[in-house]
Design a protein that fits this description.
Radius of gyration: 24 Å
Strand order of the largest sheet: 3-4-5-2-6-7-1-8
Largest sheet: 8 strands, mixed
Structural class: alpha/beta
Helix content: 25-40%
């Protein structure tokens, strides 16, 4: 095992505690190690049932694929079945000894009535981690193990509350806690394992552990996001414009295909950049008063003609009815050319100022808080949405980083604005109030 797994992976695999939690960095091979343990347990204990639940079925399928890979390595035959109806499909791997490994929905009620070991992968990213724990735990009453694996997702998430209870409140649930940061993983040989999988010309081949650590840190949107995603330090979102909890309530269910359009009105937000930041194209579909995210596309360091080409393709592909474009800087030429091609009644330019940015941002916040927008759980999108901060003076701010400058946030905000019947321009019109962290905020609806 020592030659195949790193020390922190082996320690996790060998822990047979009834309940165990892994507090971990992103992408260090712990779901992979958990898949090995699940299969090994199913092989060595006949008629064992392991229920696997991740944040969505796609993620859970990746976990099951790891189980199948280990089955091939161990020369273990299995039969794969797809059971259930379209709304409640589950994939089952059946071994010759009667053991099964089954993917189940992340919906809380999918856990009910099932006995056997539970694996709750990406636990903190589930819609309601506390409810998931409450219904999964009774399933091991007659034997089995409850394994919880996750990166943090906020200081107030139930995942962090469990960890705080273990550390500071005497561990009443008698949970075995493991913690592996990026630094821990690098100290135990992670980079060598990674390099063995990378192509020879990958720039990370030339890095030592310190270089790689700095590379990852500098690639994160903010210092806080690095500490949460890689150093097991949950982020306090109290200074973010949007809370993770509010964003999470807007996620599509895992049974929904968020890219599938209907017969609503298609709208686009475009946040442009030439260098450093990302040019972002966001498509939403408006059905009645609800806005549904349908497409997000980002370009980095793209020439002007490529940005126009992508814009035109999306405009025709989605039959877009209205577009709002950031016309600041290079956006003015982009706007003028788009208006010539498609008409200025369908393409609106927004001059980014502190005032207009606040209007756009707080309008998006209102939609999110009211759950009037549906969002994908894409991690880059969520990171961008959380990156919009409110400083001590009450101003909006977002840190520049290699992955942009809250560009997906602004693309979405512009698309949401496109769904409204009024425009941000030079003349003030109706005034209305929106809540903010500093109290009620007066917002003006402005028209040309």
């Amino acid at each position: 095992m020592k030659t195949f797994f790193l020390p922190y992976q082996a320690k996790w695999i060998q822990d047979t505690s009834r309940i165990k939690i892994m507090e971990k960095s992103r992408q260090i091979g712990l779901s992979w190690a958990t898949a090995y343990r699940a299969l090994r347990k199913a092989i060595t204990h006949a008629n064992t049932h392991v229920w696997i639940c991740s944040r969505d079925l796609q993620q859970a399928q990746l976990f099951l694929n790891d189980c199948k890979s280990f089955a091939a390595i161990l020369n273990q035959a299995y039969h794969e079945q797809l059971l259930g109806r379209a709304s409640n499909l589950r994939t089952v791997l059946r071994l010759r000894n009667g053991s099964t490994l089954t993917l189940i929905s992340s919906a809380v009620n999918a856990q009910a009535g099932k006995r056997g070991s539970r694996i709750l992968d990406e636990f903190a990213l589930h819609e309601d981690p506390e409810a998931l724990y409450n219904i999964a735990y009774p399933g091991i009453t007659w034997g089995g193990q409850l394994e919880i694996i996750s990166t943090h997702r906020g200081a107030h998430n139930f995942f962090n509350r469990l960890i705080e209870e273990i550390r500071n409140e005497g561990n009443p649930k008698q949970i075995s806690l493991h913690r592996v940061t990026l630094e821990d993983a690098l100290d135990q040989g992670f980079l060598d394992k990674l390099k063995a999988k990378l192509p020879p010309d990958d720039p990370r081949q030339a890095m030592d552990a310190g270089d790689y650590y700095n590379f990852i840190k500098q690639s994160c949107a903010t210092e806080k996001s690095f500490l949460q995603e890689y150093m097991c330090q949950p982020m306090d979102h109290s200074d973010s414009l949007l809370s993770y909890e509010a964003i999470q309530k807007c996620f599509y269910s895992e049974a929904e295909d968020w890219r599938q359009t209907s017969d609503g009105v298609m709208l686009m937000g475009v946040d442009l950049a030439r260098t450093n930041d990302l040019s972002t194209f966001v498509i939403v579909e408006q059905i009645n008063e609800m806005c549904y995210l349908r497409h997000v596309q980002c370009l980095k360091d793209a020439p002007f003609d490529q940005q126009e080409s992508v814009f035109d393709q999306l405009f025709h592909r989605f039959n877009v009815q209205r577009v709002c474009v950031d016309q600041t800087g290079m956006g003015r030429q982009f706007l003028e050319r788009a208006q010539k091609r498609f008409g200025d009644d369908r393409i609106e330019g927004i001059q980014f100022t502190q005032n207009t940015k606040e209007q756009l941002a707080y309008a998006l916040k209102a939609q999110v808080d009211r759950q009037m927008v549906r969002l994908s759980s894409d991690e880059e999108l969520v990171t961008d949405l959380l990156s919009m901060q409110i400083d001590e003076q009450g101003r909006l701010t977002a840190k520049h980083g290699p992955n942009g400058h809250a560009d997906r946030f602004w693309g979405l905000a512009l698309a949401i604005h496109a769904a409204q019947t009024v425009s941000i321009g030079s003349c003030a019109a109706e005034t209305f109030s929106l809540p903010s962290f500093q109290g009620p905020m007066q917002i003006q609806r402005l028209t040309f």
